[in-house]
Design goal:
Radius of gyration: 32 Å
Helix content: 10-25%
Number of helices: 9
GO cellular component, one term: outer membrane
CATH class of the largest domain: Mainly Beta
Protein name: Polymerase
Strand order of the largest sheet: 12-13-14-17-18-19-20-21-22-23-24-29-30-31-32-35
InterPro entries: Bac_surfAg_D15, BamA/TamA_POTRA, D15-like
Number of strands: 35
CATH architecture of the largest domain: Beta Barrel
Number of domains: 4
Strand content: 35-45%
Main location: membrane
Domain Bacterial surface antigen (D15): 375-682
Structural class: mainly beta
CATH topology of the largest domain: Porin
């Protein structure tokens, strides 16, 4: 007979342990097999016992030693196996033997193989009578909500009775209690007993509910440090965003209040609990317990970015004052300084023949390598006009280096963040960006990208120009992921709208739309599999004008506003920013086709990803993914085939929508998963859209069609070797920290 409390104590002693006692004087466990386990998976049994076999890759890992055999632990494990079967409803299960001599096979002097044979599993115990007492006085709608879709339930009409599992029994009691408290029954308790009849293999289930009175929220109290810098009234004000005096008590409101207080950003620890209920007034007080964190902090770090299209080394730093001038105003000063090479470190040593004698005698000052930096100051004012409003202003100065251009300039942004719901925010802002753009040369003495291609005003006479972009932006974001760095459940969605020019002045008039949707679902035994998916699309609309030939065309957009794709966090079939309309800046047959073009960005974007992540062992994961993407020269469209390359390259179901498949490995660390992805682009579609920088005429260019230098055609035949996405290589790899999405 099972009563009220769980009988899984023996199992609990074995959970969370990875191996037997680690002593070098004991033999290694080289193999562990469980035979005859049909109704219960052998892999699940192995996770519930202490002893484990030494993995095959142990000699390759210097940080993990072999698993050693311990007789006492193994004898206890044999009992755990029987107990685990009982917990799964198989109370008549028997092992052929529980003796050492029958289950341990010596393999020399320093190794053993373990064998467990299940003699019989027996018939499963099924749920018989199912009775719930104690909810007669509750409203019918409350009863139905408490009893809906329980882990352990009686058989429905026409179906086989469910198997009685102890885990389901405990989960049912906990879930019913949670639902009752969510309905306002703050002192609700759920107990009961389950009587197992071994003769009939039937479990008689009795659930006893003690709901108690239904309560409303009372006053909010704060427990804080001895000399707090944050006034308790400010804490109470934030908690009242989720807990309103007089509302029905619910534990989800307590969790929301805890999250709201923690998001104030000045506490190292926050806990929101209910106090002792007032049974006469039928109210429950709320206690907010906080511990203040340091109000000033400094963060320093560095990193290296490696990609076939870009290499960069950088240092980062940030200083934050979370109580600047009092009132919990936040001031953050941060920066990133680095040196970038496009595409590789070898670009730094490129030289030119300036006098025509065939000797490379001068450095190419336009070669794409140089200093990059970003320095920013951000000020945030909480409680701007109302509790849930925050004023945020940011001033940024930066110098950047891209494949088609380099730039120096700055950005000014100011707006108000509104968070009406947990993890949901609206951020309308005004933005002003001012840049000096310079067209970039390639690796040899190639043509500089013209300023018109960069979106410079028509009167720009040199390879540089100054531009200003003035626009409004509205960002809506709803984040319900369980973990921002390595999500396994939930979803994320955002929408960015930008409206530039017109009464806002600036050099460009445009409308830019960019929605992003991601979803995550974990399933399987021990939640081993995670299915992740993403859809991201965008379009950039500019005014229609009449050119000198009388044609109606769209005005050029600024290159800083255009879309680029490709890279480890984008469409992984292309290297960083290499999925985009291209400009051809060289026709030298001695130059690799990839180096003859540079990406200039597009006015449309579509990215999709489906990724299956599977836990292998420990912190090691395997991932398989399928990515698609396009970046077109014109606005995004869903129409039929177009003869105009600018329109066809932007068609969702067109021939410039590329696909890639790949595999990846993940190793989970405290800072996020270390990720290695290998991708191969499928030969479905046309070459990349390439435009002549002077005439704007479209063309195509073949490539080597290789994978990391293997399997391609000879260099002399590359120019006419057309395939999907040519002239880019078919394979890519990415090494980074954090999931792709």
């Amino acid at each position: 007979m099972l009563r009220g409390t769980s009988l899984l104590l023996l199992l609990a002693t074995g959970c969370g342990t990875t191996s037997g006692t680690t002593r070098p004087d004991q033999p290694k466990v080289m193999d562990l097999k469980i035979e005859g386990a049909d109704e219960v998976k052998a892999s699940d049994i192995k996770e519930k016992i202490v002893t484990s076999e030494t993995p095959w890759w142990e000699p390759l890992n210097p940080f993990v030693g072999p698993n050693y055999f311990d007789e006492n632990a193994w004898l206890a494990d044999l009992r755990r196996i029987k107990r685990y079967y009982q917990a799964q409803g198989y109370y008549q299960m028997q092992l052929e033997s529980e003796q050492l001599q029958d289950t341990v096979v010596r393999q020399g002097e320093d190794a053993v193989a373990l064998r467990v044979k299940v003699k019989q599993e027996g018939e499963p115990t099924r749920v018989g009578t199912f009775e719930v007492k104690g909810m007669q006085a509750l409203p019918p709608e409350h009863v139905s909500r408490v009893l809906a879709e329980l882990p352990l339930r009686p058989a429905r009409e026409g179906e086989e009775r469910p198997i009685f599992r102890e885990e389901g029994w405990e989960e049912t009691k906990a879930l019913m209690q949670q639902r009752l408290r969510e309905l306002g029954y703050a002192e609700a308790e759920v107990g009961g007993e389950a009587r197992v009849d071994l003769a009939t293999s039937e479990a008689k289930v009795l659930l006893e509910v003690r709901p108690g009175p239904r309560y409303r929220f009372g006053n909010i109290f704060v427990a804080t440090d001895a000399n707090p810098q944050v006034k308790p009234l400010r804490i109470i004000e934030q908690a009242q965003g989720a807990i309103r005096k007089g509302d029905w008590y619910s534990e989800s409101a307590l969790s929301e209040a805890q999250a709201r207080v923690f998001r104030m950003g000045v506490f190292g620890a926050v806990k929101v609990n209910r106090g002792a209920p007032d049974r006469e007034a039928r109210t429950v007080p709320v206690v907010v317990d906080v511990r203040e964190a340091p109000f000033r902090s400094i963060r320093l770090g560095g990193g290296v970015g490696l990609d076939a299209a870009r290499q960069e080394v950088r240092a980062v730093g940030e200083w934050t004052d979370r109580n600047f001038l009092g009132g919990l105003r936040r001031l953050t000063v941060g920066g990133r300084v680095g040196y970038a090479f496009i595409p590789t470190l070898g670009a730094a040593f490129d030289r030119l023949d300036t006098d025509g004698d065939g000797v490379l005698d001068s450095p190419n000052l336009s070669t794409p390598h140089g200093l990059v930096f970003q320095l920013s100051t951000q000020f945030e004012q909480p409680r701007f006009l109302a509790r849930d409003l925050r004023l945020q202003t940011t001033l940024t100065g930066e110098r950047g280096l891209e494949q088609a251009y380099n730039f120096i300039g700055g950005r000014l942004s100011g707006g108000v963040i509104w968070e009406p719901l947990p993890r949901f925010s609206l951020f309308p802002s005004y933005n002003l960006e001012v840049y000096r753009l310079q067209g970039q040369r390639g690796l040899e003495d190639q043509t500089t990208v013209p300023p018109l291609v960069l979106g410079c005003p028509p009167n720009s006479g040199s390879d540089t120009c100054n531009i200003s972009v003035s626009y409004l932006e509205q960002i809506a974001e709803w984040d319900r992921r369980d973990d921002i760095i390595a999500p396994k459940q939930g979803f994320y969605t955002s929408l960015s709208l930008q409206e530039g020019g017109g009464p806002l002045q600036g050099d460009y008039t445009f409308l830019r739309v960019l929605p992003d949707v991601r979803g995550y679902y974990t399933f399987g035994d021990s939640e081993r599999f995670t299915l992740a998916a993403r859809l991201r699309l965008g379009t950039l609309l500019t005014p229609v004008v009449t050119n000198e030939a009388g044609e109606r065309i769209r005005q050029e957009s600024a290159i800083v506003n255009r879309f680029f794709a490709g890279g480890g966090a984008s469409m992984r079939g292309f290297n960083s920013r290499r999925l985009a309309p291209m400009n051809r800046i060289s026709r030298d047959s001695n130059v690799s086709p990839v180096d003859q073009i540079v990406p200039i960005g597009g006015n449309s974007l579509l990215e999709t990803s489906v990724e299956l992540r599977m836990k292998l062992i420990g912190n090691l994961y395997l991932a398989a993914f399928h990515d698609t993407g396009l970046v077109g020269a014109g606005p995004l469209n869903f129409g039929p085939h177009q003869s105009d390359v600018r329109k066809e390259s932007s068609r969702v179901f067109g021939s410039h929508h590329y696909q890639a498949v790949g595999l990846g490995m993940r190793y989970v660390t405290i800072v996020g998963p270390i990720r290695l992805d290998l991708a191969r682009r499928l030969n479905i579609g046309r070459p990349l859209p390439i435009f002549d920088p002077t005439s704007g005429a479209p063309e195509t260019l073949g490539g080597l069609g290789d994978c990391f230098g293997l399997g391609g055609v000879a260099a002399g035949a590359a120019a006419t070797n057309y395939y999907a996405g040519s002239p880019e290589g078919l394979c890519t790899f990415f090494l980074s920290i954090g999931e792709a999405f």
